[in-house]
Amino acid sequence: MSEARLILDQVFDHEASHPDRVFLTQPIGNGQVVDTTWGQMLDQSRRMAAHLQSRGLPRGARVAILSKNCAHFVMAELAIWLGGYTTVAIFPTETADTVRFVLEHSGASLLFVGKLDTWAQQRTGVAAALPCIALPLAPPTEFETWDAITARTAPLQGRPQRGADELAMLIYTSGSTGQPKGVMNSFGAFSRVAEGIETDLRKRMGQHEARVLSYLPLAHSFERSWIEAAALWGGNTRIFFAESLDTFLQDLRRARPTLFISVPRLWLKFQQGVFAKMPPAKLDRLLSIPLVGRLVARKVLKGLGLDAVKQAGSGSAPLPPELIRWYRRIGLKLFEGYGMTEDNSYSFTSNEQFSEPGYVGVPMPGVQGKLSSDGEILIKSPGQFSGYYKQPELTAASFTDDGFFRTGDRGEIRPDGLLKITGRTKELFKTAKGKYIAPAPIENRLNA
Fold this sequence. Notes:
23 strands; single chain; globular
């Protein structure tokens, strides 16, 4: 890995070498989309970065984004980085109380409000004194708009640099008491993850121009690393965004992704949709017939919008082994991975050589993994976080004396390096959406 090179170096190179290449495709309703090229994206982000600097924000100031996935989420994040600041992305479905906590705990100086379904309820979590800017797909607000600001502001010039140790982002994740923890991720760690994932994907998929559909929350490290970071690093991926749940299948068919990343809940839902049209027993018989089976498998994948997929992945929660086998039987190369916010979702993944249903793979390049004496998975990753914001004691307790992160997961590691997750050491459980839930607050309410 090229330790000195950071993600903004890559972005500037792409801006210079292929400014007219389409990078972002955003649906805007009625079957229409807006394409944004690398040059257009950087022009917009540079203008907003100049505006943020004109507000006198100190270097490293926290700037928050509350939005569903959209093209302007990526543009806003780049503007934050170019201006010299740190991104605080908030899940678009969070309650007003959580929005308030994250904004106050992070000390956010400004908030970008974007595409949201429940802004009316979330609005009460935003202090009246906090400056806000409305992104193009935001609900109606009284805030000044992105378009108005960028129209009157000259773009920031040059190649603004960020240090490897500077914070790129704070990502808030559930804690054992239910109170979110602010995970600090540096530009150095995020860049090594972007480079590592992009390199891994190119080995699997080749050097062709890739297409992805971004729909898992960009506020989560899984989508942030495997979709946004890898695409920004490589420069030859086009990101399509989903418009809504109602149009998801249409969005998927428009994108015809070559890389598709999802979570167990959706992989199961896809399968159930297939079974609703054709009973499992009948499908199984057809797949068993030579030639006919291949035709049926292709038809199934085309119906799902996954016929162009060269690589499919699942993470955030365990995937039933039988579901992996089913997808592989219809011709989809579906692999599992394992990671967490604290390592930028960069630790273990399966591949063509090391893959077995029920196992999440082997260490990615640069990753070291081992088990403690009581079976806890310990990881040291190039994407390792810098600590929990304002929680030095918790940070210290999260690492072993030799610098390995205590994941809180129990596992087994085979002689060939394949890892199986067997349970949790902490009192947390994970939903099929990949979200951690702390039972303690619920138990306290019930016992009150």
